[in-house]
Amino acid sequence: xxxxxxxxxxxxxxxxxxxxxxxxxxxxxxxxxxxxxxxxxxxxxxxxxxxxxxxxxxxxxxxxxxxxxxxxxxxxxxxxxxxxxxxxxxxxxxxxxxxxxxxxxxxxxxxxxxxxxxxxxxxxxxxxxxxxxxxxxxxxxxxxxxxxxxxxxxxxxxxxxxxxxxxxxxxxxxxxxxxxxxxxxxxxxxxxxxxxxxxxxxxxxxxxxxxxxxxxxxxxxxxxxxxxxxxxxxxxxxxxxxxx
Amino acid sequence: xxxxxxxxxxxxxxxxxxxxxxxxxxxxxxxxxxxxxxxxxxxxxxxxxxxxxxxxxxxxxxxxxxxxxxxxxxxxxxxxxxxxxxxxxxxxxxxxxxxxxxxxxxxxxxxxxxxxxxxxxxxxxxxxxxxxxxxxxxxxxxxxxxxxxxxxxxxxxxxxxxxxxxxxxxxxxxxxxxxxxxxxxxxxxxxxxxxxxxxxxxxxxxxxxxxxxxxxxxxxxxxxxxxxxxxxxxxxx
Amino acid sequence: xxxxxxxxxxxxxxxxxxxxxxxxxxxxxxxxxxxxxxxxxxxxxxxxxxxxxxxxxxxxxxxxxxxxxxxxxxxxxxxxxxxxxxxxxxxxxxxxxxxxxxxxxxxxxxxxxxxxxxxxxxxxxxxxxxxxxxxxxxxxxxxxxxxxxxxxxxxxxxxxxxxxxxxxxxxxxxxxxxxxxxxxxxxxxxxxxxxxxxxxxxxxxxxxxxxxxxxxxxxxxxxxxxxxxxxxxxxxxxxxxxxxxxxxx
Lengths: 244, 237, 249
Hints:
The structure holds three protein chains of three kinds. Chain A is an alpha+beta fold. Chain A has helices spanning 86-101, 134-148, 189-194, 222-243; strands at residues 21-25, 33-39, 42-53, 64-70, 111-113, 117-129, 150-151, 163-164, 172-179, 182-185, 197-203, 209-215. Chain A is globular. The N and C termini of chain A lie far apart (38 Å). The model of chain A has no long low-confidence stretch (mean pLDDT 96). Chain B is of the alpha+beta class. Mean pLDDT of chain B is 89; it is low at 1-8 and 232-237. Chain B has helices at residues 2-8, 156-160, 165-174, 192-207, 214-225; strands at residues 12-13, 18-21, 26-27, 31-34, 37-40, 44-49, 52-57, 69-77, 81-85, 92-95, 117-125, 131-134, 142-143, 147-150, 177-180, 185-189. In chain B, helix 3 (165-174) runs parallel beside helix 5 (214-225) and helix 4 (192-207) runs antiparallel to helix 5 (214-225). In chain C, helix 2 (135-149) packs parallel to helix 4. Chains in contact: A-C, B-C. Chain B binds chain C through residues 12, 14-17, 30, 32, 34, 39, 41-44, 57-61, 63, 89-91, 127-129, 204, 207-211, 217, and chain C through 39-40, 57-60, 69-70, 111, 113, 116-120, 148-157, 191-194, 229-230, 233-234, 237-238, 241, 243-244, 247-248. Strand 12 of chain A pairs antiparallel with strand 9 (196-206) of chain C, so a sheet runs across the interface.
């Protein structure tokens, strides 16, 4: 299969071109925050549930974040029902790392009573339609859902009024695949299928690196890495503009 | 000449090690070429033959080759075939059409059953490493009695020796019947004491494959253990 | 990365709490061929990490539906033993070990000549006996030695090491305190003959300059780890030869 010729991809994109991004927030009323994200034909839903809970002993004043991702059979014929596959686990952990390590959520502000009670924030992401690059779609959905989330202080009788999620920055992941000697941004399903390696790089608002993950059974060179890092900063900026 | 000197060194190499320049040598077994250098892709001994450099592996699994004689152990019986363990990464099926008896469908276990040891020949290995073995050749049969010795398949060539000299000496001096499988299994049959000595001699060969005058040592060992053994003149390798 | 401490991780002279310089890795010890039953095996210590790895196969792939008709699959199981950390680790697989197992399998697929063994499985078991940060690198380093010890054809060994950041300093090979209270951790594994990257992760906060500097140190150190891997394999073979010498007479 020759998906790349003259620097053009099968869908006409440039090597470093991201598909059209569409974000809709507040779509699930039963959740404290939610976002439905389309990245080309890849579509995912993220919902935030926030409940009071007990802090970890080594961080008595910090709220707790938990990220889960489900590759449900509704989204693609290759996804099977049952407990999360290793792909789903890796996906959730990469998204989690980007959010956690960037300090996107100020967990200090999710403390109700130090040492006793904190807010537990559950980020649950479901794939709805799979056409490649779930990493970036899920990152976007989780980030947009968090930004739209309301911490239910009043609802649980823990404060005078409900407050917006304490957000400090917008971590954006950019995933690339290696096909032959080329690196392509935001791979679709067909491109992922023939790629040998994958690299996801997450940056923060000032272009610092917060998380990385190489996947796939092939390798990348130091030069590939350098290009991916440059692109992650550049494309991260573009995407932050789009999602506002 | 440099190449001749190089022949004598017995250098241990590991995967990735550079063996030679691709401009001086050709890439032999268990090697690959990268940027003008020939490198090892398995752990073993660096080996030159003329202008070819290769690696003799020091371990790993036996990979069956068409025509190899092997010793298999039956580990499953089906209605029209038997499954054998031949020390390879894959099980080897023996079909009823490849045995010297007429076997009715479903009657297989009357002839060979789980645990039986069989002398076999590798009939075919296809691209996806599917194996077929046969018992239809002279000398192939089910083994009863005797002793089975298992050694690394990489040492089998030393047990056989150059043009079969080592194995011939073992047979003559111990007066045993010995069947050597390419898969590292050796079957020995004869007088109980002699079988013991032959098995021990094979263990010595396995442990000391790298010794220079191996056949002299083996000969001396058997001579000491079995003073009645025929004095046998063999040409040293 | 998220912990907080008043501990000084790197002092003004650039010396770390375990006495190392910023670009110094921990002591590493590798021994090949340590388990009798396995096709290949390896014991590795780096700093206070103790790791045991066994390779079984290539052997018939079970369950059958995982078989690939054109090549062997590599199935790695990374496991932290219950007593390997300060608080007892509940035995069994967790999400972290699933992810690490997947990444190590993928990293090794890049070097092992799996096409020689269609339908087969190469099973790798990594047991962390004692953990002190950097266990995935230690496990992968040990696994490639065990694969070579098993006689499995592969184009190179795979050394792994981490770089990172603590107290604002870019560091090589983080220990537990630096990992817990530092600002970044970047495990990396390479193919030394080509300098390809086969495993790479990062979490924390690093600028491009810091990351490049850290990777420079990690590449250099990975080549040093590679030398220790090679020496361990060669020692295994010469030990066998020595034993041969002893058994004469």
